[in-house]
Amino acid sequence: MAKEHMQGAQLSMFLPAKVLRGMRPHMGDIEAETEAWDDYQEPGVSGPGMRKKKQFMWQNKLDESSDDDLYDSIASEGVHTPVPIQHYGKNKTRLAGGHHRVAAAYDINPDMEIPVEHGNRTEFRRS
Q: How far apart (Å, rounded) are the C-alpha atoms in residues 10 and 56?
């Protein structure tokens, strides 16, 4: 798949979990966790800033990956299915999916290499 907007730059086929976890997640993923955050907070406690929401999101993704055996599979075999990286704007990227895989891999080994696929907004349009 040609990426004209990258001006011929070589795109990585694998990235470490710590790099992927550091990417901006899709806002829909953070917003989905906001309801869980609101349930978690005591009444009268104000909501978190974006950093705390992201941390809460990653912890939830890690917990969920442990519940469905994904964590154990990644610990023994690594990540097989590429996670989508969405390119938009001028040199901006965001993690467009695969958050459970990234959370588990990061917890196991932040340097674990994860296969990635690159696309733009239309290729990774969320339904």
A: 33
Amino acid 118 reads H
pLDDT for residue 56: 80
> Does some domain include residue 126?
no
Side chain identity, residue 10: Q
Write the CB contacts of 104 (distance below 8 Å, at least 6 apart in sequence).
Answer: 62, 65, 66, 70, 71, 74, 75
pLDDT score at 48: 54
Angle of the 99-108 helix axis to the 70-77 helix axis, nearest 10: 60
| 4, part of any domain | no
Within a domain: 127: no
Q: Are 95 and 88 in contact (CB under 8 A)?
A: no
CA 84 to chain CA centroid, nearest Å:
9
- Mean pLDDT in order along the chain per 10 residues (127 residues): 51 94 76 56 52 81 90 97 90 90 97 95 63
Residue 41 CB partners (closer than 8 Å, separation 6+):
47
Which of the 8 DSSP states describes residue 4? G
Domain total of the chain: 1
